[in-house]
Structure formats: structure tokens, C-alpha cells
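User: Hey, quick favor. My workstation is busy. Could you predict this chain's structure for me?
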Amino acid sequence: MSLPRICSQALLLTLLPLSSSSVFANDSLQSIIDSPHRAESNQQRDEYRHPAESLEFFGIKQDMQVVEIWPGRGWYTEILAPWLKQGEGKLIAAGFPAETQSAYRQTIRQEYNAWLDASPELYGEVVLTEFGPETNWKFVEPASVDAVLTFRNVHNWVQGEFADQAFSAIFAALKSGGVLGVTDHRAKPGTPLAVMKKSGYLTEEYVITLAENAGFILEEKSEINANSADTADHPNGVWTLPPNLRVDNEKDKTKYQAIGESDRMTLRFRKP
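Assistant: No problem, here it is.
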């Protein structure tokens, strides 16, 4: 009798020795992405997030010291941690500060840390640090890391009115020549700041200005994570779309599910 997929995956990981290399067919990025160690719900979102193409565009290599800002529930950590470990690189997870006053962020922080602890063979070498207001801006030693990645976080910084501090802190953390990779929900050109704050969508121009004001140089844009079906003008902002599906009428869910996840900018910056 065959086991259900989720049970067979759990059994596989239970029987494996504590080595992430045992989990994967090889050390290629695509092997990590396709691996059964990833949650099936996360893999289903690959079509919107394009992890292999995004990390390749950002120029991430296995021997790099990489910081993931605000890793949330670990969607990218699931990929980055074992992949970098195999290449003798390092993932530094800069999460929400312990003293955050947000109950939501406190919960995410605790769940993420517990999730790491539950799978030491995969995540035991992830370095935990903190990033965010009001005092946690020095999240690593200055000029010490090769790349910083932030996925759909800049709109939160803009809403919290600390985007300038965030970009400056990232600039300070990177080595000369280091990379900042950004994805975020993309507003139509000319969208007013007040609308951006409310909707969660930001114009590329505004994000580029924030980064350049901190000293970064825009190296390249990509349409990897574009979604032409997203009009960026939904009743409850970007949270109307999957995965949140925050709708006022349950009948509307089908319409927004058909659109998919948000239209996103993908930007690569360099520290001179």
C-alpha cells in the first residue's frame, strides 16, 4: 500500500541522516526547488514567484554570504538555506525584532524560529539576526555580506515610514560591489504616495529613488515576476489577490484567483 504523499515525505526526512545533501538528487538550484522537503503549498506558488529565475537574475551564487530580510514563514529560506549550505555559503535571516509591538509580526517571528529548529538538517546553519525599527538597523557587521534580498517588503517599510532607514542599513551591510535584490508589488506609473501606502503597490520609480538615495546604483530590471492580468486597483489593495484573497464578497474569490498573484517589479541594485 502506498503512503499518501505528505506522509511519505515526512517518513523520508525522518529516516535521513542529519545532512541536507542527503535530501537532494544533486546540488543544483532546481534540484532544491523540486525537492520534497518543500511544502507543497509553497511549490504551488513557484509559477508566480519564479525562484530559480529570480535568484539567477540577482546573481546569487552558492558560496555567497546572503541576507534574507524579513523571511516571513520561510518561503525563500526553504530554498536558500540548503542550497547555500551545499556550496559553503551562508544564509543570514534578518527577521522581525524581538521587541516588535506588532502581535502579527511577533507570531510570525516565533513560528519561523520554531520551524527552523524543527529541521536542523536543513536549517541548522541559518544565522538569525534582526532588522527593523526602531533600533535594529545594524543587522550584520558593516560591509560584511555579498548580497541582500528582500521579497515584497518595501511596501511595508513605506507604510511604516522607515524605508529610508531600511535602505541605508542595507547599503551599510553590503560589501563594495554587493547586490541588493528587490521584488515588490508594482503600481502604475504616477500613482500618488498616499495610494501606494494604502494599496501595497509601489511604483518602480519610487523604489528606485529610495535605493538611489541610499547610494545604490540600479543595475538592471526584469519582468520575471510580471503579471499583466493584475490591474493594481483592487478594493482591498494587493491583499485582494492570492494568497490573501481579502474580498468583501465571497463570490469574488474566483475572479481574483483567476488573476493570480500581483504584478511585481524585480530590480537588481549594486553598491559601488
